[in-house]
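Attaching the record inline, Q. Sequence:
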Amino acid sequence: MTPDDVYKYYKSTYRFNKQTGMSHRSLINWLRWGFVPEASQYKIERLTNGELKTEWSIKSEAIQG
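Structure, as predicted:
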């Protein structure tokens, strides 16, 4: 997942904060950095019931066919 994917899913930093319990500042930083840290990707994947997937889940699915 990219920071843009996360922002599009939650539609605002406020909703991101309320629904994940993570700081809105985290999302702002990810947008600036251009990536979501691995641990945060796994947490967001769990919270979205797989609607947003980690980069590693996507690669694993591609390998498994």
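The radius of gyration is 12 Å. Residues 3-64 form a domain with the 434 Repressor (Amino-terminal Domain) fold (CATH 1.10.260.40).

More tomorrow.
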